[in-house]
Design a protein that fits this description.
The protein is mainly α. The chain has one domain. Helices cover 44% and strands 0% of the residues. It has five helices and no strands. The chain is globular. The relative contact order is 0.12.
């Protein structure tokens, strides 16, 4: 974990996300759990620790795994997963009550 935290690229990302205007940062070409390690290293940067971060992933399964790994890497209790409120993508009238509770 320290290798990521002390990497100059983590410092560069942290410098960008603390700018007063919203920043969109797209990381690509990463494999395995590298994205989680990078986000965890940025989360641990003193500059970026106190601001909110939003990570958008391809689907619910990828987001759930990402959330779980990030929680384990950081031991943070304030990392949230926002699943869809609906049971399926085609029928927006059927709410998934457990997902609504998670989002709340």
């Amino acid at each position: 974990m320290n290798a990521y935290t002390n990497d100059s690229r983590s410092f560069q990302i942290a410098d960008r996300i603390v700018l007063p205007t919203p920043q969109r940062i797209h990381l690509k070409g990463l494999a395995g759990s590298a994205p989680e390690f990078i986000i965890a290293s940025i989360f641990n940067q003193p500059k970026a620790y106190s601001i909110n971060h939003l990570v958008i992933l391809q689907d619910a399964e990828e987001a759930a795994y990402f959330h779980n790994t990030l929680e384990n890497l950081t031991n943070a209790l304030d990392i949230f997963y926002f699943p869809s409120s609906f049971k399926n993508k085609k029928n927006y009238t059927l709410l998934n009550s457990s997902h609504v509770m998670l989002r709340t």
